[in-house]
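New here. Your pick:
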Amino acid sequence: MSKQVTEVVEFRLKSGIDTASFIKEAQKSTAFIKSFDGFLNRTLCVNEDDLWMDIAQWRDMASAKAAGEGFMQAPEVQVFCEMIDMQTTKMQHLHVQLIS
């Protein structure tokens, strides 16, 4: 049986990027992400040190990987991606063990 997967992407924004503008582009990218089979939900968070976490829930690993393959090249998300300092990006996929 396939297990639900949580995708966690940690990053910082490029210097000078306005948070409100970034959120607007994140909303546009969410519309694109929702088009992938297996998408469940997405949460975007930031801490007091301006470290962001983009957390997406997927039905299974195959769904998460399929979405990831096309995301970075998709024209719909290019502005969103250009706002992120890619050198600070760390991504991981976690197998969900408990949902309560």
Observations:
- The domain at 5-95 is CATH 3.30.70.100 (Alpha-Beta Plaits).
- The CA atoms of residues 9 and 91 lie 4 Å apart.
- Helices lie at 19-33, 61-71, 78-82.
- DSSP finds three helices and four strands in the chain.
